[in-house]
Design brief:
Blueprint (H helix, E strand, L loop, with lengths): L2 E2 L11 E5 L2 E5 L5 E5 L5 E11 L1 H13 L6 E5 L2 E16 L2 E12 L1
Parallel strand pairs: 1-6
Antiparallel strand pairs: 2-5, 3-4, 5-8, 6-7, 7-8
Amino acid sequence: MPTPFPPQYRLTRASKPKILPRSRQRFLSDGSIAKNQVTNVRRYRWDCSIGGLDQDEMNTLIDFLEANEFTKDVTWTIDGVNLSGEFFGDYEVVIRGKRYDVIFVYIAHKV
């Protein structure tokens, strides 16, 4: 069952999307290149930054990230595009005075 990302959090300009390749290349011993198709689905990697949070907002977001660490179907609409994916790796918290930025990676595909 899909788990929606909390709508009250907005990405900052520091967030960067990357399109992940559908194939993988490797060099063979004769110098030629072998290309293997990994998936038919176009996937995106979002290096997410959600900033300007107070302590309660930061704690709620971290609780959500930790509760869904192994969830493969986290849905999120980013820039009007409906995505479904998962969180990848650890998260980072940056303290700016009395405000917090939470940085994490979301890997998803369009739905």
